[in-house]
Amino acid sequence: MRVKTTKLKIANPLPAHFGYSFLLTIAVAKAAGVSVTDSINSLENGFSLPPGRMSVFKGIKNTVLIDSSYNNATLVPMLDLLSFVAEVGKPRRRVGIIGDMRELGTMSKLVHEKVAEKILETLDLVILIGPLASNIFYQYSKSMIFRRRILSLILLLPNQPFLNKLNLRI
Question: Considering the domain boundaries, does residue 93 fall inside one?
Fold first, then answer.
């Protein structure tokens, strides 16, 4: 069986998990009688995300800013976004500003730990905001790589109680 492949051309680059949404959109449209070609054309010409969801901006000094601050607080999109930043930002320094992921219930600790592991693999520097992110990331402070990356957080938030546990001298 031969399968025809087609690339979808979207204005801004997107993490891989968007591909599943596009595939499902095309499948539902096909089931409703819309051709695959028309579905792809509609996505290419009409797809856009609201502000704060993978908004890409050109910064100064050859920088690229990706704003994904709008409620991206579930595990798969966060891991996918970090992988995306690592891939797209290969020739550059990769800096992340990451806040708490809330409303995760009993999964909160596990999700924050998984994101912490991915940050160590993908970012050169991270600035953490909020007690959930800060307290979970404390356990990774034993890593010298992480200690260098957490320096920005220490400079920004010098009176946070968890910082006393790190025994870092600035």
Answer: yes
